[in-house]
Amino acid sequence: MQTTWKGTISFGLVSIPVHLYSATQEHDVPLHQVHAKDGGRVRMKRYCEQEGKEVPYAEIAKGYESPDGRTVTLTDEDLAELPLPSKKVIDVLAFVDAAEIDPLMFSKAYYVGVADKAAAKPYALLRDALTESGRIAVTKIALRTRESPAVLRVHDGTLVLQTCIWPDEVRPAAGIAPDEQVTVRPQELKMARSLMDTLSEDFDLSQLHDDYQQALQQVIEARIQGVEVPHEEEPGEAPDNVIDLMAALRSSLKEAKGAHRGRRAGPGAEPEAGPAVEELPPVEAPAPRKRAPAGKAPAGKAAAKKATAPGTATGRATADRAATRATTRAAAGTAKPAAAAKKTTSRKSAAPRKVS
User: Fold this and answer.
1) I want to staple 148 with a disulfide (CB 3.0 to 4.6 A). Which of 163, 296, 338, 356 is the partner?
2) What is the rounded distance in angstroms from the CA atom of residue 330 to the CA atom of residue 335?
3) pLDDT tens figures, 276-318
4) Residues 6+ apart with CB under 8 A from 130
5) Burial call 27-64: b when 16+ CB within 10 Å, e when fewer
6) Residue 134 near residue 99 (C-beta atoms within 8 A)
7) Could you write out the DSSP letters of every residue in 148-178?
8) Residue 239 burial by CB count (10 A; 0-12/13-18/19+): exposed, middle or buried?
9) What distance in Å separates the CA atoms of residue 119 and residue 90, rounded to the nearest whole number?
10) What is the pTM of this model?
11) Within a 13 Å sphere around the CA of 260, how many CA atoms are in the beta-carbon half?
């Protein structure tokens, strides 16, 4: 890994000789400019306005134009000799909680490695102290042509220096959020938190990948092979406003739970079907029946048994109605098993008829 910077971490009276290594890398597909008409390569050339000819990169310097039109030329030596204490020293200014640094300020990250074996002990001391305290160290560092605030923190047992932008470089957010007063109901907030919990189950950040780069590579391969470029179906237009927020939250929660069940089942497995949700009308409770006097059968009981005998049309209709009610209760999740319902119906239908 190529060294980006060499210097020393100053931790009170403790000095730690270190090297910085870039901790991140981008995997963009390399593209260059071409003439759309014929595919010819378009190159940028550096011309000197005074001499009217191309200038090699080795002769390029930086310049500053003063308000009166004069130009001051600054060479690499001038920039390297700036009187900055942070040019070769990472001076620890304070130790603060990580929550005190706004993530908007974070910029590029660098791994911090020791420059020699003698630095191993103070390096480990600073690393372990940061880990135990749960804090980060605030520093300043000059990299290339810019001085930046930075923080030292621990990642996978390694010190990481992360440069930041200056606090006054963070633009204010005034006027971005809605100005009107919006009232969020407790039910909506509860549903939103439930959706958040469902989406967060079994989430693995390391499984994320760059779909754009993959799609771009497919287009390039299609162009090289002379085949049709793959196209994705255009998504439907998103609604410009939310009519029913609770309905949208319910639908989102249902889809998230279905996707979560599919992830737990593993790749290639069909998503588990959840129970059908169907709103049924409330069932009215039957009116209480009057009890007949002791030793006397209720009026019409014999006639009812005779009318509902299995061999009669009324008996068959009664059995059909009983089976229909059992099916409806089963769909609502409160009915007995079908076998039990049939058994009950048969027992009622098989009652002995009274001989007149």
Assistant:
1) 163
2) 4
3) 433 334 434 444 455 545 444 444 444 444 444 444 444 555 5
4) 95, 136, 137, 152, 153, 154, 159
5) eeeeeeeeeeeeeeeeeeeeeeeeeeeeeeeeeeeeee
6) no
7) EEEEEEEETTEEEEEEE--GGGSPP-TTTS-
8) exposed
9) 15
10) 0.60
11) 16
Amino acid in position 11: F
Please give the C-alpha separations between residue 83 and each of 76, 87, 141, in angstroms, as whole numbers. Answer: 14, 8, 13
Distance set, CA 111 to CA 6, 18, 292 (Å) = 12, 10, 91
- Tokens describing residue 344: 């009950």
The H-or-E segment that residue 48 falls in is strand 47-48
**Dist CA 108 CA 171 (whole Å):** 19
Q: What is the pLDDT of residue 320?
A: 55
Calpha distance 324→170 (Å, rounded) = 68
HSE toward the beta carbon, residue 305, CA cutoff 13 A: 14
Residues 6 or more apart in contact with residue 266 via CB below 8 angstroms: none
- CB distance 247 to 239 below 8 Å: no
